[in-house]
Design a protein that fits this description.
Layout (H helix, E strand, L loop, with lengths): L6 H22 L5 H28 L2 H23 L8
Length: 94
């Protein structure tokens, strides 16, 4: 789902659900394990809010993130080739 057009809608729905769950757990505290669940839901809500921020930044950057991933892949390939070259058939270079 990551990177697909519908990701933002799905993540937003998750954030809405976490907000609702947080409200319900806060209302039911201190019964059962509601207090523990409040912390867990808050952590999950922070995570989805962080991802929403990333999605917004990617949208504002337009095509730039795609070029960034390609450039990163090329750099990774070059680094991998350099690593293989230094430990190639003749052993590690000194």
């Amino acid at each position: 789902m990551r990177g697909l057009p519908q990701e933002k809608d799905q993540v937003q729905r998750a954030a809405d659900d976490y907000k609702r769950a947080l409200d319900l757990y806060q209302q039911s505290a201190p019964y059962g394990n509601a207090t523990v669940r409040v912390g867990q839901v808050q952590t999950s809500l922070e995570s989805v809010n962080f991802r929403l921020g990333e999605i917004d930044q990617e949208g504002q950057a337009g095509a730039a993130p795609a070029h960034g991933r390609v450039a990163g892949a090329i750099v990774g390939l070059i680094d991998a080739l350099r690593g293989k070259k230094s430990t190639g058939p003749g052993g590690p270079s000194h």
